[in-house]
Amino acid sequence: MIKLLSLFGGIGSDIKALKNMGHEVKTVDYVEWKENRVKAYNAMNPFRYKTQNVVGWDLKPDFLVHGSPCQDNSAANLNDDKGRSELMLETLRIIREMGEWRPRFVIWENVKGATYRNKLPIFQKYLREMNEMGYTNNYKVINAIDYGIPQQRERIFCISILGEEMFDFNRLQTKLFQPLQNFLQDESEFDLEKYVVKIPSMLSRLAALATQEQIEANKSKFNYIPTVTDFIYTLTERPDRCPGPGVIQTSDGRYRYPTEREYWRLMGFDDEDFDRMLKEFPPKPHQRSATLYALAANSIVVPVLEAIFEVLLSGNFAADYVEDDGQMQLIC
Question: I want to staple 73 with a disulfide (CB 3.0 to 4.6 A). Which of 13, 86, 113, 286 is the partner?
Fold first, then answer.
């Protein structure tokens, strides 16, 4: 039985990963303040939680996964922090107050911007205080495309282990690349017109419709939206914005946005999960669902968590070291 605590739990990529691996999971608690994410989480699991905030929360579990809000760490908001980037520090308080019930493993995920210059002090404080509480930390930027998901999605993962053992990211088992086509729906399965790019401002940003001269002339102002074939770019809350994940050429030569179902597939969720979401959040007729897009885009890629859990639960997760002038160095 794996005891799991999820802070900033979203739609539950962590429990989905463990279930996919065949483990029995006991959710000690789940903390998420956005109502639609709680509703989605409950729909995919046989229990019910209410909306709650990490601030002031207190309980004593033994295994913890958290992915604090990433918006203030994104490249677009590095100079417009609304305080969300510091919410990861609330996890420190929770762990500190656990006492002897501190979890052996703590997993944290966020965008790469968390390590950029003006956000780095917050991350360094997190690492320093985790170390003071007896944890050994190691972190690495992981790309979902290396784990069987055709999405260029780079996220930083920090694994903290209670004690002196350091997690070795080299032990993660990557997966064979799967082409984007394996994740796309056939055009006969959905209302194509609902997804075709029609807004003039978006059409003017499509790289396939621009000349090379236009692209060069505008590269200092904005990025053009690529037409994706083999893989897609990082899924964002709305596919009809620039920058975005890219567009797909239709059979009649037009261009469309990814569907909501494709979003969920590209985060490692299956169609059964998505069908449950359709019942919980039925889209309005002839409209795309901002909710279904956002729920997926703000999640963690399930196969990446599967790879991490596989190593942690194997017991063979520690890095090898050599001593060099008193310094401990990781052997890569």
Answer: 113
Q: How confident is the model at residue 325 (pLDDT cuts 50, 70, 90)?
A: very low
Reported as half-sphere exposure (CB side, CA atoms, 13 A), residue 20 has a value of: 20
The per-residue pLDDT for range 208-259, each reduced to its tens digit, is: 999 999 999 998 888 899 999 999 999 999 999 988 999 999 999 999 999 9
Strand order in the sheet with 105-111: 25-31, 2-7, 64-66, 105-111, 154-162, 135-143
Query: What is the residue-averaged pLDDT of the chain?
Result: 87
Burial class (CB in 10 A: 0-12, 13-18, 19+), 251: exposed
Topology adopted by domain 2-176+301-330: Rossmann fold (3.40.50)
Whether residue 149 is predicted with pLDDT greater than 70 in this model: the reply is yes
pLDDT beyond 80 at 66 = yes
Residue 211 · residue 192 · CB < 8 Å: no
CA 199/CA 189 separation, integer angstroms: 23
Residue 247 CB neighbours (<10 A): 27
Write b or e for each residue in 17-51: b if 16 or more Cβ atoms lie within 10 A of its Cβ, otherwise e: bbbbeeeebebbbbbbebebbbbbbbbbbeeebee
Instruction: Tell me the CATH number of domain 180-297, given options 3.40.462, 3.30.70, 3.90.120, 1.10.3470.
Output: 3.90.120
For residue 131, report the phi and psi dihedrals to the nearest 5 degrees: -65, -40
Q: Token digits for 24?
A: 């029995």
pTM: 0.86
Domain segments of the chain as ranges: 2-176+301-330, 180-297
